[in-house]
Fold these 3 entries.
Entry 1:
Amino acid sequence: MSTIALDRYRQNYLNISYTAKSWLLSTDHKRIGILYMISITLFFFLGGIAAVLFRLELLTPQADLVKAETYNKLFTLHGVIMVWFFLIPSIPSVLGNFLIPLMIGAREVAFPRLNLVSWYLFMLGGLFTFVVLITGGVDTGWTFYTPYSSSFSNSAVVATIIGVFITGFSSIFTGLNFIVTIHKLRAPGMKWSRLPLFIWSHYATSLILVLATPVLAITLGLIAIERVFGVGIFDPALGGDPVLFEHFFWFYSHPAVYIMILPGMGVTSEIIAAFTRRRIFGYTFVAMASLAIAIIGFLVWGHHIFVGGQSAYASAVFSGLSYMVAIPSAVKVFNWTATLYKGSISFDTPMLYALGFIWLFTIGGLTGLFVASLAIDVHVHDTYFVIAHFHYIMVGASVMAYLGGIHYWWPKLSGRMYPEGWGRAAALLIFFGFNLTFFPQFLLGYMGMPRRYHVYAEEFQVLNVMSTAGASILAVGYLLPLAYLLWSLRTGSIAIASPWGASGLEWQTGSPPPMENFEEIPIVTEEAYTYRPESS
Amino acid sequence: MSSHITPRRTYIFVYLALLILLGGTIGVAYVDLGIWNTVAAITIAVVKALLVVLFFMHVKYSSNLTRVYVLAGFLWLALLIGLTLTDYLTRTSGF
Amino acid sequence: MVDLPIFPIEASTIAIHVDLLLTGLVAISTVFTLIVLVLMVYFGLKYRRGKTADRSNPPLTSTKIELAWIFGLILLSVGAYTWATVIFFNMNRPPEETIDISVVGLQWMWKFQHADGQREINELHVPVGYPVRLVMTSQDVIHSFFVPAFRLKNDVIPGRYTELWFEATKTGEFHLFCAEYCGTNHAEMIGKIIVMDPRAYQEWLGGQPGGVSMVQAGEELFTELGCSSCHVAGAGVRAPTLAGMFGSEVRLASGETVVADEAYIRESILFPQEKIVTGYDPIMPSYQGRVSEEQIMQLIAYIRSLSGETGPEGGEDENQ
Amino acid sequence: MAEARAPTLDRPELPELDQESISLGMWIFLASEVMFFGALFAAYIIYRNAYPQVFAEASRHLNVWIGGVNTGLLLTSSLTVALAVNAAQLGKRKLLIAFLLLTIVLGLIFLGLKGLEYSQEFEENLFPGRNFIYPGPEPEKARLFFSLYFTMTGLHALHMLAGLLTFSIIVLLAWRKKITQENYISVELAGLFWHFVDIVWIFLFPLLYLIGRT
Ligand code: HEA
Ligand code: HEA
Ligand code: CUA
Ligand SMILES: [Cu+2]
């Protein structure tokens, strides 16, 4: 196998053609994955720049860098871009697209052309939103709460909604594609019980993509209709109920947070297995936990409106269900930790990210339980405590998992190795910068600093300065991988088919894989992660 | 491509049943049954939908996997409605 | 002079319970985070690749262990959940006797009116040691009334009433924030809760140009708007008498019964056709667009007073 | 391998999905569509539950005749679509085209009637836009009913348009003999979509037109 891989002139999906057309019209899942990678990286830095700007504003209690309007537009831009144009498509659309067929031993996804359509929809929605956010801006927050968004804001709400709406269809098609692919295109012998956990978590993610996204589309659509035609469904002046909008919005947006974490969990499972040379402890439980999270995750949305005018009884129900969704998450954390036992552990960059993921997810998840506890949420709702909670999960955990995954599969994606020393340094820098940015925000939140405030009370300043300092370190931390990964494309050493010695079908084909993925469709005879730590 | 071919006669029967049910739903709407009006309307609609799904859409002959996804759509809708109602039906003030 | 206060002052009866709960959750979380951290470090050192260690027969799965931690966590969750939920329901249930204050939120200020008619903007004076109940609504978008020192917040929603009650335990000035994003100057929709000792509070009330109390204002409106032309014994029109109505169960034409609370009265004024009292004709006109939220609150105060509800004045009588 | 660098990136032997798998994709999409309309149904249920009288009264302003006839038309079109799929399965091209054309005609009549109905409602100022005037009690809440009515039926009509467009394309393809007994999946998929649109209407009709008729 390695003889093929070493042949750098071997035909593969990257060198088969270099024309722009061969990329922009490619229906190859690997190329589409790369297209997504480039686009979401751009969006990430865009959202990041907004974050840097408002973090700078927050250095002092007064408004000095930007005006109130600008500040509001900045955090809206940050939230909208980071959620819909970076994190939701991050792991599924990049790594999922690239790896799902490879991992299950298929040549393609089920609907290759639809896959390309998804990317175009994504870009259409993305560019649309981008132009809107840059030219006019929107100031509703990423949550679009009505009646502010429908009757009061005079920013470009409708245009933004159209962008998000279009991108929603990209999500739905991606999810649909993955589901059919996983059901129908598994290689012979690839039973469900042999699937890598990455596949399980993407299956669960796809369910959410398909069943939750349409609700967001219609709900935002209703806001747009209300603004354009004056046909209001949530307008309190007509006896409508703005809280109903919140219900619908969160019916999507809570499951959506699992769209953002489940794929990261899948990546983590792969990395932990590869770098401990161990089958993940409790494979079945970890796999089922993904499905449990996806399903129970649909039943907890009301925890965002504990103080939003929801009945106290409904709040009690949603709080209880939120506690339940923590249990499958805990199962995962414990099983990953248990996998380390008697492993053969090496601390390469991907492993550092994976361990960072586990620990930061634990903190983020546990503080999720704080906010799921009714009495605490009354106090910390809409404060920086919530901001810290979700950045611990979304930045601490999910972005770490994404970076870990990119490093782990970089040889497969690009055919080159990244510089290991730089990789580890960046991972540590990001970990440190991250904690310095967001840990102080828990304290700020409990002290009562509300979110979406550009001016604040004096006593909050010290912690805010710490947070901004952390954000600057974080910014450098994120620039590093961008730089050395790009650099490695020219200078990195050539990757062999399986540089980590990991199991999994994706490692059995060349790096980068040939256009048709496998010269011959593999036949699977073993379970996932067959390693023998004693022997290494 | 091979798949089940439903005889045309079946389609016609189903169609006639649908028309009768349509007549039924209109008819029953003009009789005062109190709350049962709504129950009847929904029941008839569900039966009609079932007929369409099972025969016109061939779910009667589909694999279990397809059936799971057919059900999933409706089940999830029930979740959306059901849990939203836990709020609306227990509100003590307002709305 | 960097001083870093990292814990907010506790100034209400409920705050101590919330903080205790927080402490409990922090303790649980610390245990779990440490377990994960310690195991990660320990295994990482012990089983580092290249090190010799006993790696024989690594366990692959164990249903027993899995079920053990699943059920363990369920028990722990039920405990924490119950604790938090009980406090929450106590936060929601005001005591019988409260000082009632009406609150209207609008872009971007807070308006308050005391029972005796004293109005305040962005400042609210309350006595220490007495339960205070806020009945809140918004004139435009959703806001949220947040007093960190009391550990309390609730959204203020247009078209509805929401409530909040607290009993301050410390005198002093505390932050009032708007916590729900409400547009450009959301961050400046802030104010002060000034907690005074009861005597000072009485003096403050006396010193304010209160003028007309809520009930009186409501009574005037009641005549002005023509309510009295129907809702008064001997009026030509048959309309239910409003005396004794507040808090009672009203039987509706549809067969349902509802409790006549603030929201019900508000609805009766704005959307009278929706809930028709049994035995009456649906002739009451809608007052939507003709009364402001503040005026509705005054009407409600008046209608409450007709039921001999201690209501608005109640709290005050106590203070004397 | 040098020849493999041809500009076309067609990969060899891409697996042919069987019909069942392709239909599965459609069904997943339809599950998604259920949720898309579903939020509107949820809103309807919640508001109707809150304001039953007003909704009943407002419903009486709709034209039950047009609604009823349209339901009949749509059910019939579902039959013709089912028969079209049947014809495709049997490889009867002419019959396929005939049934599809019939479906398109039925769909167009539906939309025509719907348009007529909308224009009547616009004339009566029942469109809940800026000129909304409602003669009955509680105009504000009746307005909610009409908002729901117009959004739900409007969205439904858009779906019908999409379906009709697809059918027109399929007629063209069938005309050019591109649709064969072995490859009629497009007919099958369009059919599934159309039946779904029919089912949505099966619920819309009683919920919008038939409340408060007693
Ligand atoms: C990827 C994103 C992500 C993820 C995975 C989660 C996961 C969770 N979230 Fe989070 N959340 C967000 C993103 C996310 N959240 C965002 C973006 C917001 C704010 C939106 C906005 O308003 O803008 C938010 C807001 C938010 C709120 C509303 C707060 C408020 O506005 O007042 C709540 C309330 O319950 C909540 C709860 C939870 C819970 C219980 C989990 C659980 O799934 C966590 C489960 C995990 C664990 C618990 C850790 C592992 C467990 C152990 C180590 C064992 C110990 C366990 C027990 C004792 C049971 N979240
Ligand atoms: C995937 C989701 C995601 C990600 C990755 C992030 C990343 C970051 N977020 Fe994000 N955040 C959200 C999702 C996310 N956020 C959401 C949903 C909200 C709520 C919005 C709302 O209220 O509506 C929010 C809100 C939010 C707030 C609250 C704003 C407010 O309420 O007023 C803050 C405050 O500190 C913050 C900070 C940061 C920081 C410092 C990062 C950093 O991790 C970013 C680091 C990245 C970079 C810094 C870019 C890389 C570097 C460069 C481009 C170099 C150039 C840099 C310089 C000029 C120094 N975020
Ligand atoms: Cu008012 Cu924010
Ligand atoms: Cu949530």
Entry 2:
Amino acid sequence: MPQDSEKKEQSLFRAPPIFEQERMLEAILFASAEPLTTIEMAERMPHGCDPAEAMVHLCRRYEGRGVRVVRVGDAWAIRTAPDLGYLMQRETIETRKLSRAAIETLAIIAYHQPVTRAEIEEIRGVSVSRGTVDQLLEMEWIRFGRRKMTPGRPVTFVVTQAFLDHFGLESARDLPGLKELRAAGLLENRPPPGLMPQIGEGGEDEDEAAPGQNELFED
Amino acid sequence: MPQDSEKKEQSLFRAPPIFEQERMLEAILFASAEPLTTIEMAERMPHGCDPAEAMVHLCRRYEGRGVRVVRVGDAWAIRTAPDLGYLMQRETIETRKLSRAAIETLAIIAYHQPVTRAEIEEIRGVSVSRGTVDQLLEMEWIRFGRRKMTPGRPVTFVVTQAFLDHFGLESARDLPGLKELRAAGLLENRPPPGLMPQIGEGGEDEDEAAPGQNELFED
Amino acid sequence: MVEDDFENVSGAARIAERLAAESLIVDVDGFEGPLDLLLTLSRTQKVDLRKISVLDLARQYLAFVEQAKALRLELAADYLVMAAWLAFLKSRLLLPPDPAEDGPSGEDMAAHLAFQLERLQAMRDCAARLMARDRLGRDVFSRGIPEDVARVRRVRYSATLLDLMQGYARIRTRDEFRPFVMDRDAIFTMEQALERMRGMIGFAGTWTDILSYLPDGFTTDPMRRRSATASTFAASLELVKEGRVEIRQSETFAPIELRRKD
């Protein structure tokens, strides 16, 4: 406690040296199982600290080590090096086996986000059961995105930071094969040329020319 | 996964180099839910590894870092460096309205300083709880003034610079008098005119003239 | 129609196809809808999905549906809807285009179906690649002993200058109030008025202004006069209630008069 206020008072005058900030980041990131944004880290560090700069140093320090600093969306986390995964078999938590429908739905959401339920159904050619979406929501791999500005204003789904964390992705842009799929036009929402059998109950937003993935990657 | 079996096969022939063992230890200790003994670590590592030796390297590597390898009984764990413990706390600040008793006590101190507890009680007409005064002292809105040169030499209370800062006052003399309060409509219980003596100037004008008020602001 | 399609297939191939279709049918519950079934059927063509023959695929699908009917299997409605559409598509693809007919051409529809199949296959591949990645909790691990951030709750008390001044005003004005006590010597009570009037009422044979009943010493000082007027008026009403007098007022603010009731 006394140290606490002392540190903070000191910080009113000058930020701690960068190596000290790096130590702080290291301590904060090690202590957390969840990824932390630089903003969250800055909140816990003395005033005047620049976590972004210190992070560069920290990442470098852990290059090639048994654990490493990884980027997860706009957050950071320390994770074990993938090549050492075999040593940790005992730590493996038996994850619930995902159904094929759930896996496919997840992939469609990841690659087409933000995507409506009707769009998922069109791609899979089958209606998406409530349970599948609920399971993915519960696992916190997907969440609701913005509503589409189309008739009925349907909700959309997008993937979460936990999804990126789980699959070791820095961002949804790093999804494997994304560029190729886009180049092949397979991420376009191509309206069916009429008379095609329509799937599911939510046929109302099928005809829209959705911007799809592009929306996500513009920024 | 192919890497997995490859590693294991390789290990049948020779132990991994020590820096590789150090990486392994680092990953294992990081991911473990509990401190591990060198025997437990050896069990998880490829044959021929020497966790005790690798541990010496690992401990050295973390010297002076934000986290460090510590001994817990006969086991090992990674822990936050003790001097950074304060980063593991997060203050949540909750703003609460000051109690009526505290506000009244504070007001009396501000208008009558330096004032003794007995004087406060006399003005408020009720006894002042220890907790109320302690709270105001803790908030650093009041502090002890000089002792009164009266029998018993009671301590007095005065308001602090923090008090003035909080209320945006340059000095306690800027506090409005009763007449001004009344003009501002702050005295809701206006006594019927004619029936009451003009106490407006009464008490508090005396106080303003009191030498006490100046005392605080001399320094 | 189905039989026609099989004519140009060799006998052995036909048997193989039928067997394949049967094995698919046994498994019909395993399909995730008609598109999934079409995708599975398309694999028998052993070509790139981009080069697939939609016409052949339509034939295969329709054969499958025929087979299911022959085996008296209940197919879900969407399989039958797809069958109807594919039959339509097939006819569009086989017949020369009718210039009078609107709507998409058979080629457009076939192209879209091929696109749908390719897209579904692509998503399946993506799903597989995703699941094969180094995954948290399986290949990559997070901190085993996360240190919880201790929440230190600090309460900050606040007060405004207004609170302070109102508080002070409250204390200082508290003393100013004493219990309200009537200044008795300025008061002529109703009881007094009633007693006084009872003694005099017998003489009021004619209408008399009630103000003439005000006692001495209560007529000049405004406060005393006000008190006596009020009590005399109240006493008059009391006497009316008792049936002893009558009371009248010719108009608003005119003198109130009373006289004995006989």
Entry 3:
Amino acid sequence: MRENKKITIVLGVIGADVHAVGNRILHHAFSEAGFNVVNIGVMASQEEFINAAIETNADVIVVSSLYGHGEIDCRGLKEKTVEAGLTDVRLYVGGNLVVGKQDWKETEKKFKNMGFDRVYPPGTMPQEVIDDLIEDFNLS
Amino acid sequence: MRENKKITIVLGVIGADVHAVGNRILHHAFSEAGFNVVNIGVMASQEEFINAAIETNADVIVVSSLYGHGEIDCRGLKEKTVEAGLTDVRLYVGGNLVVGKQDWKETEKKFKNMGFDRVYPPGTMPQEVIDDLIEDFNLS
Amino acid sequence: MEVELAKGKIDWDYFNQLRSEVLQAWPTGQEVNLEEAAAYHKELSPQRRFPELLKAAEREGRTLAQPRAGVALLQEHIELLQYLEKEGEADCLPTTIDSYTRQNRYNEAQKGIDESRKEGRSMLNGFPAVNHGVAACREVIEAVDVPVQVRHGTPDARLLAEITLAGGFTSFEGGGISYNIPYAKAVPLERSLAHWQYVDRLVGYYQDQGITINRELFGPLTGTLVPPCISHSIGIIEALLAAQQGVKSITLGYGQCGSLLQDVAAVITLKELAAEYLKKFGYTDVELSTVFHQWMGGFPQDESRAFGVIGWGAASAALAKANKVIVKTSHEAMGVPTKEANAAGIKATKQVLNMLKDQSLPESEELRVEKDIICKEVRVILDRVIDFGEGNLALGTVRAFKAGVLDVPFAPSKFNYGKLLPARDNNGAVRLLDFGNLPFSREIIEFHQEKIAERGREEGRQPSFQMVIDDIYAIGKGMLVGRPR
Amino acid sequence: MEVELAKGKIDWDYFNQLRSEVLQAWPTGQEVNLEEAAAYHKELSPQRRFPELLKAAEREGRTLAQPRAGVALLQEHIELLQYLEKEGEADCLPTTIDSYTRQNRYNEAQKGIDESRKEGRSMLNGFPAVNHGVAACREVIEAVDVPVQVRHGTPDARLLAEITLAGGFTSFEGGGISYNIPYAKAVPLERSLAHWQYVDRLVGYYQDQGITINRELFGPLTGTLVPPCISHSIGIIEALLAAQQGVKSITLGYGQCGSLLQDVAAVITLKELAAEYLKKFGYTDVELSTVFHQWMGGFPQDESRAFGVIGWGAASAALAKANKVIVKTSHEAMGVPTKEANAAGIKATKQVLNMLKDQSLPESEELRVEKDIICKEVRVILDRVIDFGEGNLALGTVRAFKAGVLDVPFAPSKFNYGKLLPARDNNGAVRLLDFGNLPFSREIIEFHQEKIAERGREEGRQPSFQMVIDDIYAIGKGMLVGRPR
Ligand code: B12
Ligand code: B12
């Protein structure tokens, strides 16, 4: 197992979203890959993400949104991290971000504009995020 | 049963086409509706249609083509009827007239241009043709 | 007011005390007038009534097809339902409620409505019925010719029930367990059970006025490898709790697992066991029906592959002779479906249902084994829950969850014991790898262990959490059993 | 040269006399050199060989998915196959031959090729392999990584077989009955049988060089309510005739009827009965496999409904454990499918096949009854055909057709007796309403009559031709049994 322990991930499912299965698998996959995972679970508010990141001195916040309200739920998160002084914390988001099957390019742009560093389409496998984490944090 | 006996229909499946089921059902439906049906069956050449029409003094030729080669097989049929002096005989055609699922308007135009009086899309039920026959021959 | 778990039918005066508080939670609560609502229902044409439709389906031996559907705005929602009725040929319709309403966050739902108006597309994943109110609900009911049901996932659905039932809906999905454990994180069971006793009591009120409202229990739970014994036990408890409040038309739900034998056995035993326990509790006049959910877990992204899953779900439902099937769409893995995709799912389903209407899976040794094990498992769980309750089934349920005698795989609720690990056996049936605290006999445990061991031998690996993960992904990747690569 | 029905393996010298004539029918015939072709086959990688793939599928208990596909021009045909391999994930590929080539009208096929070039779209409903010649066939074979089969409907396929087998195809569909009676109007059976003895003898030649070519028999016949006893009897006769010429790899075909029990019973008995008769005739080293055709009759126009039919076909094939399934598409009722629609059909099918890979229909009393009746029917027909032949099975076949002992519903051939009338029973199984001259025992006849009478009672009408018509339209209209409105 790689020495990824130094990287701390705050993981959670934002808003009123209760989709728990993907969260459990991401937790498992990130841990197996050697990361330090702080899982705040489903139905997590923006504040819970921020607080967990502050408390654990996190490197990256991985937000899941499956149920379609991601657009409403994620607005302002970036601004809140900045306010909280978490300017170096990276923001990833993935799942089924919007309501319905929409043009992916549009959705990606929307979330990038909201301040997310990486935005993932439905069905992204954990290994892809792990590879990106390794790249983003020069771990390889 | 209506008095449609006076109208004689030459019915057949043109070209190298062996689709026999629809032909059998059309035969049954036209007969039940009281028409005089001369069924030359499947794999009928243009000549067979013309000859049958001459021999039986037919009022209408109903051409089926299911297998996709209808476009090639039907070309020149109108001209041959004219040559044979069958200028009053109406020409109907139906089935799966072209290869593949194509724009119906286009196909209809193509067959109208070839000289067919009525052109029917896939899945046309016998009753529709019967209604048209009644209209075209003022039988109602 | 403190929640209290009723032992029997809630006293009407007490109910009214609770009621005045419930109706204050959002302004539209004031629109509800029970007598007027009962009168409205009496005028409703029978073809728009769910209980009648279900009885007809049972009589004719056919399986009804029902989609999921709901958007933020009233007019759009009506157009959606009309489309699914006309183009999709749906036998009955839903009104799927959005996730904010499900969490009683009516303010956020309002924001969603407003933004949807602005953006010109639905920003909500369902229809916020509470915000729209009673009159709007009646517009929905009257806009279509088939019955419409409220489908959601709401731990506290009291206001939603008040408004939608007064609004003319004739079926209401959910239950104190099935709409809490998979749908919430921190709602205590005693609370959701009490809130659902309220809903059932409300339905019981209508029943007392001669108006039967169908209650459907949400069988699939988390939709992810839930073994039949778990969903059956929970469904039967919810049926008993509903019957206690005077409910007379109950639809028991089950989410397809994917193994034909297990799924057929499950549908058959679900009705049999429910009737058995209802009788045990003295309820002999409850109309029972079954609903089969096409695969509720992760779907393939590819639309044609999704059609394959849908077709198999339809076939299993028909062969099991379920009374109703809830239809998925080819967009499932991507997002809430367009109306066209939704209609396509219904039509593919109906084609299969109709082709299989006169067929069923014949009795066989293998089917008998599956039915047997389900019955044994359910009886041992239910009898323990009943014992725990000491005469109060709702209380027994709370205690059972605490003890892990009831446990739902992958549920988000912190009031779930959370120790079960399901995995498929070598033929695709869902078994248990970890039993948590289920009160299973040695015989049952060995049955599961041997089944999973058989798969392990076939795959040359020890059963483990990796096997579970492989199974979770399997259907999405085009298999049933998550074989190692 | 006069046709002659061989009693046993055709003498090699006589074969060569026939051959020189066959190869002259079109210029490309001169491209065939048997020794060189055998050498080419020896170099062919095993993954491109049909017999090997079928054996692997049988070993692994999986069902292969194969589309139909063919267009007029070589490059387009190759692109189509590559697309179906890559995007469609087909397990094996076809080259469907156009209808002019099937009737040996190579001039018209050439016209079709030329016009297709001009119009920029395929004006032919298949690939005219004879006109394209040996080298073009090899380009097709080498362009894809899975085996490719010739699929057609050709009463006289001698030149087509010479060219495509020399061209590296490793499987060849058809037979002297199944590619005549449903596909021709005026070709005498003695002629098509003799011509197919030639094809089988050619395959026997390759076999003698150590190169196994798979021969598939066209089970569905007219695709329209053909009862299993008819297609089984014909398939087994064709298998025996092929074995006589030295064929060692035979795939028996069956077209889905739509009743799960009947279809599973049919696939199981097809292999069993074929093995039984091959053994009776002394052929014990023939590799047998089965292919299941998704519903071959009229399809629904609606594409989602078509997906329903496809899904049910895939499920039935998997539960019957057929070795291969031939896939339909959502365009079926409209026309030759686009490559996208074709790929979609394969993917929907594969999803179901994979999900059911580890499941099968368990033995039951009902299944046993279906298997029993098929076996009885087939044995009584075959034994009569064999008797008729007085030691020459091909001759017995000709006589049997003349006498109506063999009879195919709705066949266009004037050499078909044409008296059978099939209809569905109350559960959807295909039975016989009119037996024509089938040599059935009282017991068998009563079985059918009682089954159809049961349906008549249910529908409150006398069984008649109207019932048959209703059944022909039924699946297209979204049912299985053509119930009156
Ligand atoms: C199971 C399921 C449920 C279960 C959930 C049980 C539970 N508590 O977990 C139940 C039945 C309760 C449910 C409820 C609802 N659901 Co739901 N559900 C699903 C379903 C079928 C599978 C989800 C799943 O478990 N997949 C398996 C896991 C392993 O995959 P995953 O969740 O996608 O997660 C993986 C990836 O997305 C990725 N990932 C996730 N997050 C992130 C983040 C990053 C940064 C990255 C890189 C990757 C990543 O990695 C994960 C692991 O591989 C999906 C559709 C589908 N995918 O097929 C719909 C789906 C997510 N549900 C949906 C909806 C709308 C709902 C409901 C509103 C119900 C409704 N309409 O009736 C409610 C919402 C309740 C709520 N408040 O959240 C929609 C969302 C629509 C949209 N976005 O447009 C979906 C897409 C279905 C659909 N097409 O309509 N659902
Ligand atoms: C059964 C069938 C066969 C059977 C036919 C058995 C037989 N001898 O009859 C078999 C398996 C042998 C077969 C062979 C072939 N078939 Co075929 N077959 C079908 C199928 C599935 C059903 C046809 C049928 O019987 N329908 C039931 C009857 C009642 O309906 P019908 O034939 O459509 O006829 C009705 C209407 O069309 C209408 N009608 C017909 N003619 C007329 C005329 C007029 C004027 C009017 C108003 C109405 C009308 O009334 C009829 C009665 O209701 C169709 C697809 C489909 N429709 O689902 C393909 C189909 C017709 N076949 C097709 C093809 C290509 C072939 C083959 C080349 C095979 C191949 N690709 O492998 C060969 C051709 C052989 C030949 N030389 O003709 C294609 C044609 C493609 C196209 N036009 O683009 C189709 C559409 C399938 C497809 N999508 O690829 N086939």
